[in-house]
Amino acid sequence: MKTLFKKILVLAVMFGTYTSYANDALEVATTFNDVKKGNHIAVTDASGEIIYSAEINYNGNLTTLFDFTELKNGKYIVEITKGFEIEINTIEVKDHIVAFINADRKTIYKPVVRNENATVLISKLALHSDIMMVELYFEGELIHSETVKGGNILNRVYKLDKTLKGRYTAIIKSDDRVYIENFRI
Fold first, then answer.
1. Separation between Cα atoms, residue 137 and residue 145, nearest integer Å
2. The dihedral sign for the CA sequence 23, 26, 28, 30
3. What's the pTM value of the predicted model, to 2 decimals?
């Protein structure tokens, strides 16, 4: 009876250990689970140099689409640009083993620029920085510049002159990044 109890106890401990590892693996897998064809990937090393940048050609799990184990030992920043958001993850490679550092994971939301009937709407979720600098250019010449401060959502609406038809550029600076949107009226 004691041996049966010991075997059941050993089996329960092993099952618990396997379940624990499975939960850790599942958490890592969901980090990059939702990449789609057309998303953009950029991998930056510890010195800030971009070592890889490309458009993703397939839908799926990023860890199966890209082999991070071939990178040299060190920490890397992996950025996935999906529409209006940038998912930033830190990975550490040591002896061809990749570890995801979830504490450094964050998402930055890009500004949305809409142009309808010579009215330009610029909107941005400001979860990390509540400051957005906006510059509007017409045919390469600065026509308006302002710093927008606020809460969790930064919004500005600009009414442009309908008679000035041509190329416009909106340059938005926020979250230590620069976003450029070109449009025409």
1. 9
2. negative
3. 0.69
